[in-house]
Structure formats: structure tokens, C-alpha cells
Write a structure and sequence with these properties.
about 90 residues; mainly alpha; 2 helices; transmembrane helix
Amino acid sequence: MADEKPDLAWRVIGGLVGLATAWVARKALGFVWVKTTGKEPPVDPDSPEVSLGEAIGYAVLMGVGMSVAQIVVNRTAKKRYEAWRSVKQAAREL
């Protein structure tokens, strides 16, 4: 299975799922940031106007949050896709 290339359908689905996940996770994490800190997320964490602690906190939240969201959603989507493919394959064999 490691030698198999993913089929085109999964590449397209995986790409779209990745884009949607990134967008939703960014919005959700921004909401969490506002509720937690009471401030809008920093637009430019490299700016000297943003404190070092705030910049690092935001980077950690976004890095960990985005990674976790991508892993969970990609694994779920892959399981659903494989299940759908199995059903489709079984239907062909009938």
C-alpha cells in the first residue's frame, strides 16, 4: 500500500479538505484568541508593537491548532473516502 500512488479523486478531495480545514481552523482559533485575550489576533506578529509574549503565544496557538485540525480532518476524510471506495468496489463486483 505504501507503493501505491493516491488516485486523482483523493488528491482533489484532500486538497479541498485541506483548504477548507485551514480556513475554518484559522477562523476558530482567531475566535478563541479574542475570547481568551480580549484582543484581536496580531496581524503581524513580527511587528515591534506586538509584545514578544503575545507573538509567541499566537504562534504556538496557530501552529498547534492548525496541525491538530489538519490531522483530525485529514484522517477522518481519508477513512470516509476509503469506506466509500470499498462500497463502490463491492458494488462493481456484483
